[in-house]
Amino acid sequence: MMQRDELPSLLLLPFPPDPSDRSLLNAAYRPSITAALSKLKRPNGAAQLIVGVACPLLHGQFVRSKTLSWRDAQALVAGLYGIISVVCAQLSIGTEMDGGPGSVDTTVVLIDHSRSKRFTEDFRPAIETNNTVVVDLATFASAYHPWNYIFHVRNELGLQLYQTYLKLAEGKQTIMQEQLIPVEGGLTMNAAHKAGSAPTSHVQTSTYPVVCLGGTFDYLHPGHKLLLTAAALLLEVPRKDAGGSPSTYIIGITGDELLKNKKYAEYVQSWEARARNVIVFLSRLLHLSNSGWKKGTQPEIDEKDGDFKAFFRDGTILVHCVRIQDAFGPTITVQRVDALVVSGETRSGGKAVNDKRAEQGWKTLEVFEVDVLDADEVSEEPTKTTENFASKISSSVIRQQRAMAKPGTKI
Question: pTM here?
Answer without folding.
Answer: 0.92
